[in-house]
Amino acid sequence: MHRNFPVLLSQGIFYTVAVQLTSAMAVIPFIAAELDAPAIVVALLVPIYTIGTLFGNVFIAQILRWTSSVVVLLFGNVFFQAALIVLNALAVEFLPDNVSPYPLLITSAFIGVAAGFSRVIVSLSTAALLPPDRQGSLLIQQAGYGAVMVTLVSAYSAGFLSDESPGIDNAELLWVGAAAMIVSAICCMGLRPIRDVMPTERMRMGEAMVAGARLLRSAGWLRRYLAAQVAFTAITLGSVFYGIYSSESLGPDNGALDVILTFVGLGLLAGIWIWSYVRKRFDVRGMLVCSALIGTSAAVLTLVLIAFRPIPLVWTFGLAMMLTAIASQAVFPASHVWVEREVTDDERVVVLSFTQIVVSVASIGIALVFGLIARHGLEVWPIAIMLALNVIAVIAAAGARVRQREEI
Description:
It comes from Mycolicibacterium moriokaense. Keywords: Membrane, Transmembrane, Transmembrane helix. By secondary structure, this protein is mostly helical. Helix content is 78%, strand content 0%.
């Protein structure tokens, strides 16, 4: 149906706003660090979120056995995340500062579970609701136009739009995110599938893992895809590192979250043009290579700016978060298109579940390391580690061989 694109675009825009304003990967660790939570609590937030993501990927095969409607799956997952964001907002607003970081650990785990569901559900829903030639464009536009709203909210809070702006505190920012997620859930009700992409055989998780391992041995493209996904955790988790690193460097109660989010919004906004151009000109492999290069540039720029201090630190970290947002924005659309060019409808859930479980296991360790080393604010060596990991991502992207559009 033609109306699916604008409805799905609207749903994705509000979803992007909610995720960016309440991110368990960047915003929640920043808030916890600003509340002067113990170092181990801040360091554990993202690994716990990632463990939740792992469980989400493990149990998604079971969830798919409950319903045959991708719209019901999408609505349920979005509504579940809205409820969790409300709980986070309540904790930050009403609990004492020395207590509120601890409930965030629990909700981060469940938000991770929902994120694990999302990777498969979004792929299924876009395949069921849109023709293949519009799917990649949708994902980029959702992130980009959502960035416009994120930028406006953050810029208003930071006082960039009005000197009379009272600013938006951490709890209020979470409430705005919760409202956006609820609107996203409401948008789901207007969607109507155009084809059935649910697997004909509903596998249990153990069966899906065995099938995934079998496919991994026989399919060279899947091995390359999985290697690239693991390497690109340095890109997708970059916001975790820079978020904690900036909060530690700026000190507790620094009030810089809205400024940082403004830069993130500007990065996502710039990503609309950048990734639309790169996708059309250089296709999937070009998107991955450019993404890794931009992530590398973020690390190099941060090293230089910290060494010479030509601008305020908050602007330095804002630029790093902006470049990281641009880089990570390309990873999911590129990965989605890569998979869609290779899999059949019956293989889709197996491939996505299997690869995301492997990536989640790798991400748990990487996220814990990022959380720990980022606590050493203003020291150079953590940035150097990020630079090395981003260079590995460049190498992995350069070695990727993705089927071209004309081969399909």
